[in-house]
């Protein structure tokens, strides 16, 4: 839980730990039944080309509505799913649902739609990941190049040899890879060269401070230059203002996601966005 200042954190320490623990236990108990009760759904946030303003793809984001807890943010339940191992089954559902949806959009629009799926570290290190991706993509007839997997830096710091083999296997399928939340983990720039990734997503915290704080602007600028030199595409996350977008355009960032263009929307709303996109041509 984030608190505004340290005094407050100390003051509420004992009360809030009990409350947090209760909440975590409640989430965990409900999470165990959420799949079979069909409480999950996906929403999709557009990713936009900065140069021409067109949608280039979407990121699938998991949503959970539970009768007892209401709408629970993935920021709350994903870490619990990760810790309990429930993420394996939930992640398999996300992949399946994404591929099913991609096929349905393509059937309706006639063009492949690119979608990125988030993988948590535990999912990424799970043994059958590669065969399960191959199987899912094959069953739904999804062009592998339309699917992208987003992995955070924390999934990459251990077992480098294994990670390298796995990433090459994913690339051999034709599926793309991106590094999510870039800049927040224990970034080692060396792995950008070693691992076969196509895209970097600059974390929202750096974008938020663009225009307020020179350090963030310097960091964003460096990451974009680095990505260009390594021939990686670069995406800015969490763009909320025209000012941020103008700065990113100036810095030659390739793509952005953010509330400025659109929040994550339902599968039906994606169809409407794709129609509007077509008429932009
Ligand atoms: P993420 O992968 O970095 O996803 C981006 C998050 O930033 C999303 O939050 C999105 O709604 C939010 N966002 C996008 N644009 C803006 C903006 O302009 N302003 C602000 N304030 N926020 C913006 P969301 O959907 O709550 O997801 C949070 C995190 O939960 C994700 O971060 C990802 O790490 C995790 N997550 C979501 N879905 C899945 C999933 O299917 N599997 C796994 N393993 N993790 C997921
Ligand atoms: Mg992501
Ligand atoms: Mg991200
Ligand atoms: Mg993020």
TrEMBL record:
<feature type="domain" description="EAL">
    <location>
        <begin position="24"/>
        <end position="278"/>
    </location>
</feature>
<protein>
    <submittedName>
        <fullName>EAL domain-containing protein</fullName>
    </submittedName>
</protein>
């Amino acid at each position: 839980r984030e608190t505004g200042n340290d005094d407050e954190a100390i003051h509420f320490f004992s009360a809030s730990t009990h409350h947090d623990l209760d909440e975590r236990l409640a989430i965990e108990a409900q999470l165990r039944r959420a799949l079979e009760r069909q409480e999950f759904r996906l929403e999709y946030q557009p990713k936009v080309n900065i140069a021409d303003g067109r949608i280039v793809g979407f990121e699938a984001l998991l949503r959970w509505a539970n009768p007892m807890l209401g709408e629970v943010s993935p920021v709350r339940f994903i870490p619990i799913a990760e810790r309990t191992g429930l993420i394996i089954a939930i992640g398999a559902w996300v992949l399946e649902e994404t591929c099913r949806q991609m096929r349905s959009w393509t059937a309706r629009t006639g063009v492949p739609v690119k979608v990125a799926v988030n993988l948590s570290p535990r999912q990424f290190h799970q043994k059958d990941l590669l065969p399960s991706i191959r199987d899912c993509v094959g069953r739904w007839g999804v062009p592998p190049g339309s699917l992208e997997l987003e992995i955070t830096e924390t999934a990459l710091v251990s077992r480098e040899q294994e990670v390298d083999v796995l990433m090459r296997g994913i690339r051999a399928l034709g599926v793309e890879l991106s590094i999510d939340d870039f800049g927040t983990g224990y970034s080692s720039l060396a792995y950008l060269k070693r691992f076969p990734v196509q895209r970097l997503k600059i974390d929202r915290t750096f974008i938020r401070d663009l225009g307020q704080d020179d350090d963030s602007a310097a960091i964003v600028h460096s990451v974009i230059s680095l990505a260009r030199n390594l021939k990686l595409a670069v995406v800015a996350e969490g763009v909320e203002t025209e000012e941020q977008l103008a700065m990113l355009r100036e810095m030659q960032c390739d793509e952005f996601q953010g509330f400025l263009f659109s929040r994550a929307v339902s599968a039906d709303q994606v169809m409407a966005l794709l129609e509007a996109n077509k008429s932009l041509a």
